[in-house]
Amino acid sequence: MKLKNFFAPLAFLLVLSSCSSVKVATDYDREVDFNQYKSFAFYKPGIDKADVSDLDKKRILRAIEAELTAKGFSKMANPDLLVSIFTKTKENVNVYQNNFGYGYGWGWNPWYWGNGYNTVSRTTEGTLYIDLIDAKSMELVWQGMGTGALTMDMNDKIERINEIVKEIIARYPPGSYKK
Questions:
Q1: What is the largest CA-CA distance in the chain?
Q2: Helix crossing, 154-169 with 54-70: angle to 10°?
């Protein structure tokens, strides 16, 4: 019985901690000199295609603007880089099975091992792609991707979007990210 009381909170903490992390990956054109880019603008045709609510688009774009501005970029009408986004979501179902308990006889037997329980949790995982496009050639030069658990709570959602965007933009320009 004590084991059950120990492992239930432990499983919950494991799920909670796994939801708080952001997985980030980037890819880029190795032939491009990223020092040439000093300004940006949002690429409306690409952003309009993103499968996310208009309010969440605004939140994402504000977060991107804040992070790029903090890196020394200027938002301009005639920019060096165009910024586009797209999103994907998937639902994860996690089943945690706990068969700790007591029973009759020697060894484990599924019919006599008692007091087990299962917990099921569902989380929605979202992936945000941020594309940086050379404004002159209209070619993709850098792409950042961040994946993390999403929430429906408004304050948590804004904080989560800011966290994901910050983690992605931290890896621009290539080679600048320090772990």
A1: 78
A2: 40
Cβ atoms 5, 118 nearer than 8 A? no
Residue in this structure with the two tokens 């994901």, named with its chain if needed: 164
The pLDDT tens digits of the residues spanning 52-70 come to: 889 999 999 999 999 999 9
Note the residue count of the chain: 179
Find tokens 């966290």 and name the residue: 163
**Token pair of 98 as six digits:** 């706990």
Judge whether residue 78 has pLDDT over 70: yes
Tell me the pairing of strands 81-98 and 23-28: unpaired
Query: What's the pTM?
Result: 0.73
Burial category of 92 from C-beta neighbours within 10 Å (exposed 0-12, middle 13-18, buried 19 and up): exposed
Question: Mean pLDDT over residues 140-156, rounded?
Answer: 90
In the structure, what pLDDT confidence band is assigned to residue 91 with cuts at 50, 70 and 90? confident
Phi, psi dihedral angles at 105 (to 5 degrees): 85, 180
Sheet architecture: strand order including 74-75: 23-28, 140-149, 117-134, 81-98, 39-42, 74-75
pLDDT score at 77: 95
